[in-house]
Design brief:
alpha+beta; binds zinc ion; globular; two-stranded antiparallel ribbon; two-stranded antiparallel sheet; C2H2-type domain-containing protein
Amino acid sequence: MAENFYCECCGKKYSNVRDLTSNSCSKSPTKKHVLYEGSEKKQYTCKLCGKMYSNLVDLTSNSCSKSPTKKHVPAR
Ligand SMILES: [Zn+2]
Ligand SMILES: [Zn+2]
């Protein structure tokens, strides 16, 4: 069973956590990918505004009106 790991800042997908953490992230304030700790879903919801997206790339590339950082934060 293949499981994928996603960055919650940019939505990039990796097949293992080591690759995710060793690559740099263009959207993260720390320049490092942040592991999304939720499971893979059909719909991802922003926990700040409740907006739903079908994937994390769309969620992270849109701006959030309720977030202090203007970025959606995926609920787990
Ligand atoms: Zn990232
Ligand atoms: Zn949002």
